[in-house]
Amino acid sequence: MLTGQIFREGPGWSAHCTILGAYTQGRSLKEATANLAEAIELKVGERDFKVTITGIRHRGSDEHMVFVEASEPALLAAEVLKYQREIHRLSLAAVAKKLGAASVNAYAAYEQGKREPSLSKFLELLRAVAPEITSSWSRETPRS
Q1: Three-state DSSP class for 54?
Q2: What SS3 state is found at 27?
Q3: Could you give the residue ranges of the DSSP H alpha helices within 45-135?
Q4: Topology of domain 73-134, CATH
Q5: Distance of CA 75 to CAs 35, 37, 50, Å?
Q6: What CA–CA distance (Å, rounded) separates 59 from 122?
Q7: How does DSSP classify residue 72?
């Protein structure tokens, strides 16, 4: 599950899922929400892949946090990894090297959605392509 933001902008609404590079808008909150789901589905580009936007939380009257859930989580994770690798201008070989892998095939399987990473593995992979995103997640939390 990922998060996104929907907020009033001028007469309409903007919807963003920044980690995926999905940005859209709509005339209403409902339309912006539907458009964000469609934008993510189009980015992934798989026929049966569906996105559900849930859990709108109000952060003030004109700003909402949303949760992005996918029918196939491996494909959603794959799109995040691919998008982040591309915007950070990294090759598959460069990411494999950062991960200490002997070949690119292991990482590529995650990026192609052939393997679904656990949360800890996803964070490890994401840290290799976009360390600034995971820096706040990597701090250890105190145990009781």
Answers
A1: strand
A2: coil
A3: 73-87, 92-99, 105-111, 119-129, 131-134
A4: 434 Repressor (Amino-terminal Domain) (1.10.260)
A5: 19, 14, 10
A6: 28
A7: S
pLDDT tens for 41-96 read 999 999 999 999 987 767 667 888 889 999 999 999 999 999 999 999 999 999 99
**139 phi/psi in degrees, rounded to 5:** -70, 135
Average pLDDT, the chain: 88
The CATH number for 2-70, chosen from 3.40.50.300, 3.40.190.10, 3.50.50.60, 3.30.160.250, is 3.30.160.250
What residues have CB less than 8 Å from 20, skipping those under 6 apart? 2, 40, 43, 68, 79, 80, 83
Rounded Cα distance, 22 and 55, in Å: 18
Strand ranges for the chain from DSSP E: 2-9, 12-17, 22-26, 51-58, 63-70
- Nearest-angstrom CA–CA distance, 132 and 84: 11
Task: Kindly state the greatest CA–CA separation across the chain.
Answer: 53
